[in-house]
Design a protein that fits this description.
- The structure is a single chain.
- The chain has 332 residues and is α/β, with parallel strands linked by helices.
- 45% of the residues lie in helices and 17% in strands.
- It contains 13 helices and 12 strands.
- Strands 1, 2, 3, 4, 5, 6, 7, 8, 9, 10, 11 and 12 form a 12-stranded mixed β-sheet that branches.
- Helix 2 packs across helix 13, helix 4 crosses helix 6 and helix 8 packs across helix 9.
- The relative contact order is 0.16.
- The model has no long low-confidence stretch (mean pLDDT 94).
Length: 332
């Protein structure tokens, strides 16, 4: 089993991107940035007050050579960036006065840079809360067309699993939406397909997972899945999405042949699994990790117009580097 993160890091090195890191009060953020620069994964832009960056780097024993320092305490530069952001043409969810106020926080400064194309992606969440990251991303960057809510895709790698993409599978939503509506579930599926395509280069085949296969069960959750599938086909007719399928009918060809008595480009060959709620998605990832001794990766937020990562505050430097590699790949 090739380590998935090693594979993703290798792919990122072939197409490095400019990565904004606005949490430079964290020694682990700077250690991860140093590795990202040294290994050629990306070009780190350290977005924080210069004195914070320099003192934290000294504490961490990290050289700042070859990394771009963006001094967010430079009032003149911040004012110019806020004005560029407001004048860029797209309708904003913040006033000019609000933009000048928000940009005092490095996370907003970084995302304004990303929205304007000064960097390609933003890595945060190691010191900011998930709520902070979501609020900044929704206000400054916004959601992509056809998507109502952000979500999180996990890439899982399971020893011994022989699926359509080897031992790797994408699962959603694994972190944000507890009980998504049909509209939200459709958004999750669309974003999961787009994220998986960027990260892995696959043609997504998205299965909506349920306890029911093609009407074998009836309940409000099944009806919600069917409506979500209808919305996906309406919003993005080119996507290969199907359901509702039990898990085995979604990923095992022999089972799909028995349970799905119609033509399907997804049944038995799914590489993206969309679960009906956060309970099942989160449990599925943990079952893979605990019982199958597999791995789960991913803190990228799917559904935004531009790539943003919401790192875990308990993430190690190794995990942060892997997440940054995934973020770089999402920037294509």
């Amino acid at each position: 089993m090739q380590n998935l993160i090693d594979e993703l890091v290798g792919k990122a090195k072939r197409a490095p991107r400019r990565v904004a890191l606005p949490e430079c009060e964290s020694t682990n953020t700077l250690r991860a940035a140093r590795r990202v620069a040294d290994e050629g994964i990306g070009a780190p832009y350290l977005v924080s007050p210069r004195d914070v960056i320099e003192s934290c780097a000294a504490e961490a024993g990290v050289s700042l050579d070859g990394m771009r320092i963006v001094d967010s305490s430079d009032a003149e530069a911040a004012e110019a960036l806020a004005k560029r952001y407001m004048d860029a043409g797209r309708e904003r969810l913040v006033s000019a006065k609000g933009a000048r106020r928000k940009i005092k926080r490095p996370i907003y400064y970084a995302m304004m840079m990303e929205e304007l194309g000064d960097v390609d992606c933003t890595f945060c969440g190691h010191t900011n809360t998930t709520g902070d990251v979501l609020m900044a991303a929704q206000m400054i960057i916004g959601l992509q067309d056809g998507v109502d809510v952000p979500s999180i895709v996990a890439l899982t790698q399971t020893p011994g699993f022989e699926g359509p993409e080897g031992d790797v599978m994408a699962l959603a939503d694994c972190g944000l939406n507890p009980e998504p509506s049909a509209e939200e579930l459709a958004s999750i599926a669309i974003a999961a397909c787009d994220s998986t395509s960027s990260l892995m280069g696959w043609e997504p085949r998205c299965a909506f997972v349920s306890y029911s296969t093609d009407g074998s069960g009836e309940s409000p959750s099944v009806e919600r899945i069917r409506e979500a599938l209808r919305l996906v086909h309406e919003r993005r007719p080119e996507l290969k999405a199907d359901g509702e399928f039990q898990l085995d009918a979604a990923i095992v060809p022999a089972t799909a042949a028995k349970k799905v008595s119609r033509e399907s480009e997804v049944a038995g060959r799914a590489n993206v699994l969309v679960f009906p709620d956060l309970n099942t998605a989160n449990t599925a990832v943990k079952l893979i990790q605990l019982f199958a001794h597999g791995k789960g990766f991913g803190h990228n937020l799917s559904g935004f117009r531009r790539p943003v990562a919401d790192s875990s505050r308990g993430a190690t430097v190794e995990e942060m580097v892997g997440d940054i590699a995934m973020l770089v790949l999402s920037s294509d």
